[in-house]
Amino acid sequence: MSASGTYRLQITSAIRLSLAERANFIAQVGGMLVNNGFILLMWFMFFAGFRRVGGWQLADVALLLGLAMSVVGWANVAAGGYRDLAARILRGELDALLTQPLPVLPRLLAAESLAHGWGDVLTGAVLLATSAGLRATDLPMLALGLACGLTVFLSCGILFASLAFWLRGARSFTRDLVDFVVLFSMYPGSIWQGPLKLLVHTLLPAGFIVLMPVRLLREPAWHDALALVAAALVYAALAGWVFQRGLRRYRRGEAPSA
Question: Bridge-partner residues for 53, per DSSP?
Fold first, then answer.
C-alpha cells in the first residue's frame, strides 16, 4: 500500500476514534466554541468603538480569524499527531515504525485526530461564510490560501518538533513555539513592524499562514499567489529535510530520550 493510502486509512481510524466517545467529543468541541466565542466577542466589541484600525475593518479581522481557525482546526483534525510529535520522538516510539517500509512522518501525523479541532473548523467556516465579506468568486483564492497556510503551519510544527532529535527538553519548548505561531496569527498585520514583521515571515510565519492569504483575497495578484505557493513549498521541503536529518541521527542512537 502507498504512503498516501496508509495515511488515509490511519487518519480515518483516528477521526473515528475521536468521535467514538460522544460525551468527550461534545465537551471538547463545545469548549473550543466557547473559547472562540470569547475571542470573537472581544473583537466585535473593539470594532464597535473603532471602525477602522491600521486600515483593518471588522470584516478583515473576521477573514483573518476565519483563516487562522480553519488552518489550526484542520491541522488538529487531519494531522493531530504534530502536537505530540516531539514527545513521541523522545519516548522512542519511532522504533516500531522504523521496522516497516512506509515513510515515518505521515504515519506520525495521522496517529491522532484532536476532537477540539472541529470547534475551530466550525467557527472558521461560519466566520468565512458570514462575516468576512467574501464572494463566490473568491473561492479559488480562499482554497489556495487555506492550503498554503495549512502547509506552512504543519511544516512549522514538524520543524519545531524535530528539535527533539537534538534537545531533550524539546517537548514543552516546541509546543510553546506552535502556540506562539497561533497567537501571532490572530492579530492584524498592521501591528507587526520592524523586527517583528521579519519574525512573522520567518520563524513564526503568521505572514504566510494568514496575512498573505488575507491580502490575496482583498487584493488578488498573481505574484502574491506565486510567492505564497513558493513559501509553502520551501517550508514543507525544509521541514522534511530537517526531520529526515533527525531521523538518521535517531537511527544511529544519537538522539536524546525522555
Answer: 56
Reported residue count of the chain is: 258
Report whether 164 contacts 171 (CB < 8 A): yes
Neighbours of 48 (CB within 10 A): 9
Q: Give the contacts of 55 (CB within 8 A, at least 6 positions apart).
A: 190
- ∠ CA 230-72-69 to the nearest 5 degrees? 105
Helical residues (DSSP H) of the chain, grouped into ranges: 3-20, 22-49, 58-78, 85-90, 94-98, 104-109, 117-130, 139-161, 170-184, 195-199, 206, 212-218, 222-251
Section 205-209 average pLDDT: 96
Question: Cell for 79?
Answer: 494531522
Specify the pLDDT at position 255: 81
Question: SS3 of 56, please?
Answer: strand
Residue 203 has pLDDT above 70, yes or no: yes
pLDDT in the model for residue 189? 87
Nearest to 164 by CA among 173, 176, 155, 177: 173
The reported pLDDT for the residue numbered 258 is 66
Query: What is the model's pTM?
Result: 0.95
Kindly list the distances between the CA atom of residue 46 and the CA atoms of 39, 88, 91, in Å, as whole numbers in the listed order: 11, 41, 45
Please give the pLDDT value at position 156.
97
Report which of 35, 210, 178, 179 is spatially closest to residue 116, judged by C-alpha positions: 35
Backbone dihedral region for residue 183 (phi beyond 0: left; psi -120 to 50: alpha; all else: beta): alpha
